[in-house]
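Two entries, shown back to back:
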Amino acid sequence: MTPLLYEIAAYILSFYLKVFHRFQVYGAHHLPKNGPVIVVSNHANFIDPIVVGCSLRQRQVCFMAKEELFRIPIFRSLLPGLGTFPVRRGRSDRTAIRAAFGVLKQGKVLGMFPEGTRYRDGQLHPLRQGASLLAAETGASILPMIIRGTQKLKLFHFPQIKVYIGEAFTLATVEPKKEMVLRGTAEIYTRLRALWENTK
């Protein structure tokens, strides 16, 4: 069951998005009702994890967040209750990787931004291999998502935000595993690119 704190936060933030950003979501029915899922999306703004979570209210979406946030008392108390776990940026973090595997092994939903960082130019960029690796190791379904509008978000400027969600898919089994990860990354990019082009 979705934690009460997450439900309350999702309700409040969804209300904010609808009022200030005329928030619209297309394709939320593509989210599998159960089993492990990796949501992969483009990334333009710090608000994107909130947008992803509010787009998929049927299930809780867990995210990685930079370790520094967990040093702030209020975030250290709130973030775990929202399904968020820390990651050290700029280097391999085995603890975060194990946590991500744990989320999927429990049949939960993990949100990822495979571009690896935020891009505000309104374009889709090459992907890192993390999402494909996790999917290859766990058999999780992959749910492609495109967020439009957050790249325009500025102080006192409230652009419309639209979210487009494609059909979930799983990676084809290929040996060796390294080749599966490479092909999987290409497949994820192809799916995101198609969704990107079809929603301009």
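entry 2 starts here
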Amino acid sequence: MLHTNDPIIKHKVGLLNPAEELQNISKACQVMGLSRETFYRYKQAVEDGGVESLLNKDRRKSNPKNRVDERTEAAVVQHAIDYPAHGQARTSNQLRKQGIFVSWSGVRSIWPRHGLACFKKRLCVLSKKK
């Protein structure tokens, strides 16, 4: 009998345990409202890697090609802190004058990663810095 307190995989383990107790996989799947194919997929995952393997895995691979380099990102963040009232387009234009080429949409994607997505957040960072 399998036990877990993790709410993400609790329902998956909840399918495997009644099937063991009832000795009838079809009945357990019918009660839980899942297909037998799903049951066997869960069972195989537990046999291969234990209960932890039932966690949902992110199938998307990260795409670092879409990110700007660290120097550009640091310049965007520094500009946002120095000039919190500047928007994405103005920030992009000002940095272009300094020789740092980043599009306004690039600026828009950098700011949330550093908690600078909106004007109020940029002001908060500026006030904490002073």
